[in-house]
């Protein structure tokens, strides 16, 4: 798991799947707004002229020298909901990210977002 103090160190590091296949480059980390713990990362994927940011959960992620290993295969991550490299995740699109990975989505009691970019 990536600890909040380590977040800045892992930006621009390779993100790899369990078999070590490169998925992309870690762009940003999103924290759970209820706990302020890292929950998701955006991974920059695609061709240099057509890049996008896909979301991947950080539960059970491990770090190594120059990489972050996530427990999801490359195909699953690449098919995840995505945003443009200059876009932000809309509140109404958060649930789709959680659904893609089979995770429960729980907004705040007053409908607050579950994710916040750090």
Automatic annotation (TrEMBL):
One of its GO terms (cellular component) is plasma membrane light-harvesting complex. Coiled coil: none annotated. This is Photosystem reaction center subunit H. SUPFAM superfamilies: PRC-barrel domain. Pfam families: PRC. It comes from Streptomyces roseolilacinus. Residues 7-76 form the PRC-barrel domain. InterPro entries: Bac_photo_RC_H_C, PRC-brl_dom, PRC_barrel-like_sf. GO terms for biological process: photosynthesis, light reaction.
């Amino acid at each position: 798991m990536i600890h909040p103090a380590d977040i800045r160190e892992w930006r621009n590091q390779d993100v790899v799947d369990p078999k070590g296949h490169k998925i992309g480059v870690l762009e940003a980390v999103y924290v759970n707004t209820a706990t302020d713990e890292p929950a998701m990362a955006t991974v920059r994927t695609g061709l240099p002229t057509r890049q996008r940011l896909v979301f991947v959960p950080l539960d059970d992620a491990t770090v190594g020298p120059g990489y972050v290993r996530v427990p999801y295969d490359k195909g699953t991550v690449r098919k995840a909901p995505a945003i443009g490299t200059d876009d932000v995740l809309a509140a109404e699109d958060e649930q789709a990210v959680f659904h893609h990975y089979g995770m429960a989505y729980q907004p705040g009691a007053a409908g607050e977002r579950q994710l916040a970019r750090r």
